[in-house]
Design goal:
The chain is an alpha+beta fold. The chain has one domain: Aminopeptidase. Helix content is about 30%, strand content about 40%. It contains 4 helices and 7 strands. Strands 1-2-3-4-5-7-6 form a 7-stranded mixed sheet, sandwiched between helices. Strand 3 and strand 4 form a beta hairpin. The longest helix is centred in the middle third of the chain and has 15 residues. The N and C termini lie far apart (about 60 Å). The structure holds coenzyme A (COA). The site of coenzyme A (COA) has 19 residues, from strand 4, helix 3 and helix 4.
Length: about 160
């Protein structure tokens, strides 16, 4: 008998300390200037909304959202390079926006490198627009790179 072949189920849940080695591995393969293991540990200890997207029981992506005083900040969103363009980044962003709404957040902010076309494409698709620039915000190999600050309002007055 041939076992049926299908895609593993995809779920999103809170990140735990046990996920950090897989999360850090994806982070190192995704960014030229990755967050350290310790930064993720601090995000867990700080009680941020830290989430992972699982394919079966393997971490394929993650997101980190901080919420305070009616505002939320997307601090990280990342999908394993092997699993990009499957809609996982959008699912992670949807989950973070859902959690922000549940916390009665009115506006969500994030920083992005202007050279990061995939991320800009995702944020534009989800209704974010540029509200500011932060000069020399990011590390770069030849000095610093500016950040674009993007925002999305979740409720209207
Ligand atoms: C940004 C990132 C999270 C997107 O994840 P993903 O799972 O590949 O994205 P999805 O498949 O969910 O795509 C959702 C939308 O994003 C946009 N998008 C995705 N990849 C894109 C690309 N290469 N170029 C332009 N737009 C892109 C599209 O609008 C897409 O919608 P569509 O499929 O209807 O066209 C992923 O590229 C990543 O992890 N990058 C490295 C980490 C990073 O830079 N994070 C952002 C830091 S600010």
């Amino acid at each position: 008998m041939i076992a049926p072949v299908g895609k593993p189920p995809v779920t999103i849940r809170d990140m735990s300390h046990d996920d950090l080695s897989m999360v850090s591995d994806i982070e190192r393969r995704s960014y030229e200037f990755p967050w350290s293991h310790g930064v993720f540990r601090d995000c867990l200890l700080a009680g941020y909304n830290n989430i992972v997207l699982l394919r079966g029981d393997v971490v394929a992506g993650y997101g980190v959202l901080s919420v305070a005083a009616g505002e939320a900040h997307i601090l990280n969103i990342c999908v394993d390079p092997a699993y990009r363009s499957h809609g996982y980044g959008e699912s992670l962003l949807d989950e973070m926006l859902f959690r922000a709404r549940a916390a009665t957040v009115r506006q969500v902010f994030l920083e992005v490198r202007p050279s990061n076309e995939p991320a800009l494409g995702l944020y534009r698709k989800k209704g974010f627009h540029k509200v500011a620039e932060r000069p020399a915000y990011y590390q770069a190999h030849d000095g610093r790179e500016d950040a674009a600050v993007l925002s999305k309002k979740l409720v209207t007055d």
